Amino acid sequence: MVIDNQIGGSMLYRTYDELTEKERMELRSLRNQVSFCLKGEEKKNRVAIHLALYLMYKYGNTNDCVSYKEIFDEENYDIKAILDEYFNENIWNELCSRGNQFSAEAFFNASFMPEDYDPMNGNFNTPSSIIKLANRILSVEDGETVAEFCCNKGDFLISNCFAEKKCKYIGYDLSTESCAIAKIKSALLDHSFKIVQKNVLDLDFEFEHDKVFSDFPLGFRLNKYNKDNMITEYNKLFGTDFTNMSDSWLFVLSVLSTLSKKGRAACIMVNGPLSNAIDNKIREFLIKNNYIEAIVALPAMMFDYTGISSALIVLNKYKSDEKVKFVDASKLYVKGRRQNVFSKENVDEIINIYENESQYSKFIEYERLVEENYSLNIKRYLKEEVKFENLTKIDDVLISVRRGATYSAAQLDQISSTEETKYQYLMLGNIKNGMIDDNLPYITEINKKYEKFCLNHHNIVISKNGKPFKVAVVENLDERKILANGNLYILELDEEKINPYYLKAYFESEYGSAALNAIAIGSTIPNIPLKDLKELKIPCPALEEQEKIALKYAALEDEIRMLNIKLERAYSKLKEVFISESED
Fold first, then answer.
1. Which of 255, 268, 410, 458 has the fewest CB atoms within 10 Å distance of its CB?
2. CATH number of the domain encompassing residue 228
3. What does the DSSP assignment read for 308-373?
4. Overall pTM surpassing 0.85 (yes/no)
């Protein structure tokens, strides 16, 4: 936020996002000049820059450039301690010689400019548009105790201070530098919020909180010793028997432990823990105790330090209904060059679908959550409902399903062959456009213990990892033996129940592809758990109806093969044009 100032004639309490580009450039120029006044390593120090802006706002208009120690308010103990560590008289004198170019308000505005991502100094920025969304969801009210976990510079708290809510505001962060900057910003706002330097995973909070926002660094990893100790402490607190969980849930439990009886919280986390098998018990605990109000899927590329997809989990200590609201906001954003953002209209639309059911939001009953093994994967619940008759589990039409052979690169090198043999090896990259390459790599032998991973005629192979998931039908083996890679599932079908080409046609359709995506887990590299694949329901009409679809699909696949052969011949001719024409 900015207050009325002389740079560009800004309006009262406008956010930085609402400034014109000219106004932003002028503020950046001011920041650069302040940075220029800092000597040596201090140029790189974010705390010193914020101290300089604070001092120039408070005292820069004094006519006599006396020592800042003489004019500084001695009662401001927090800032005094920071000054003693990060500031000196030489910087102050340099600032005074340049500061008269700008108004005091301009220095105030520059203090609240967004900063560049700087992970080495603990500067993980929370996008302002996500803070706006979290504020709308949490709806802070006067008189509440409001906290920001992993607060960095306190942006969530600052946004509420400018909204003039009369609350007790507290920010927690482990970084000395981030806490110092947050304290300086609090001083600029007449000490409207308190900053506590602490590890938010330690259960020694002084206050309960009515509203909490948490944006812990996505992808953060704890060492095993600390993690095991923390899980033990949480088990004592909640009366649970957790043995392991993703690190993300430890932060969520920490937030939950501090909520008042009517407390609510919004926590940002990566998508993987919402469905990973390792986190079943913690999800079961949260769902059974009715602590989860909503899951909001966020767009990718919202953060400047990672492109990973994430979600907002909303906790509620006093909800009465046994439902969880799932909201898909992943497509509601304005695309940026390096980072996507929510516009005001996007936030309005997300709040609308949050408060009302739509094709992008739905309440899911407790019984359904139990059915889905307590998964919080939004794709399981918001996929387009298509009414198929004769639905059956894949496991009911299989003779067997298994994962391919897991070979290390070194093991594969030992058995690879440059000469033609009757043994070949199928890898994920050998499946292109739904068809298996004719020219698979040769291997010298297949050990007897690996023969069970060899392919049979009309098996279906499905990629275990990555998107889009690949599907192919095995055919024309002749005398060849093909060993499947460990990144593939091998489905041996009961062809008296299902046609392989029919099943492939389904998986490659919009509906089948959505079904596979819905059971996939993991954020960075999505993968399909074998158990969930076997439980996946597919339409299984009478064989006569399957045959019609299968014949049409196989005919089109043959046509593609012929076109590919023609294409290869055309490419070969292209390479010969120059030589043949030159010889003529």
1. 410
2. 3.40.50.150
3. --EEEEEEESS--SSEEEEEE-TT-SB--SS--B--HHHHHHHHHHHHS-BTTEEEEEHHHHHHTT
4. no
